[in-house]
Design goal:
mainly alpha, Fumarate Reductase Cytochrome B subunit, 64% helix
């Protein structure tokens, strides 16, 4: 049995599919929620029921984001995205592709690093309080002490990448008048 690559239409669409839009905005909202929750929970002193609940929610969000990003990557591989405007400079197109690649790498690496940090800290991840995820690495405080800052710095890296992404959207939307934002909005029309 051979696997064939997906066949795309001859010309790229003007907009992302509704599924791609839904995944984009859902993942974005969950990432914001996870980051804010992570910030709040780490500022709560001691071990309290509220802090433990926030940690659980934070982990659930991470697992959900990991699954949705995997779905997003599969969708992206099988559905042609809109082409970048012809007016964009070559370096801008390269930067756009590199920026998207970096966002995907970070959106995968952050939940994975959080999972490994949690496992190394000896704390199980019980998704939605129902399903205990398998423990891949044994509890090890030395490994946990390395993974904690890795997880934190990956989050700061994602914040920087998202900020660059948003600035690029603003530049192309308001300065270059390329109307890239409309391609990812579920309402309105897109013209090139």
């Amino acid at each position: 049995m051979t696997m064939s690559s997906p066949t795309f239409p001859a010309s790229p669409p003007l907009r992302y599919t509704r599924t791609a839009m839904a995944l984009h905005w859902l993942v974005a909202a969950l990432l914001v929620w996870a980051f804010v929750l992570g910030w709040i929970m780490t500022d709560i002193p001691g071990i309290t029921p509220t802090k433990l609940r926030y940690f659980s929610w934070h982990k659930w969000l991470g697992v959900t984001v990991l699954v949705l990003v995997a779905v997003r990557l599969i969708w992206r591989a099988t559905h042609r995205p809109p082409a970048l405007p012809a007016q964009m400079h070559g370096w801008e197109k390269i930067a756009a592709h590199a920026g998207h690649g970096l966002l995907y790498v970070l959106m995968l690496a952050i939940p994975v690093s959080g999972y490994f940090y949690t496992a190394a800290a000896g704390v199980p991840v019980v998704y939605l309080g129902l399903w205990r995820l398998p423990t891949i690495i044994a509890a090890d405080p030395a490994v946990a002490s390395v993974l904690k800052p890795v997880h934190i710095w990956l989050n700061y890296g994602l914040m920087a990448a998202v900020a660059a992404h948003l600035l690029a959207v603003v530049k192309h939307q308001l300065i270059d008048r390329q109307r890239l934002l409309q391609r990812m909005l579920p309402f309105g029309r897109t013209t090139h």
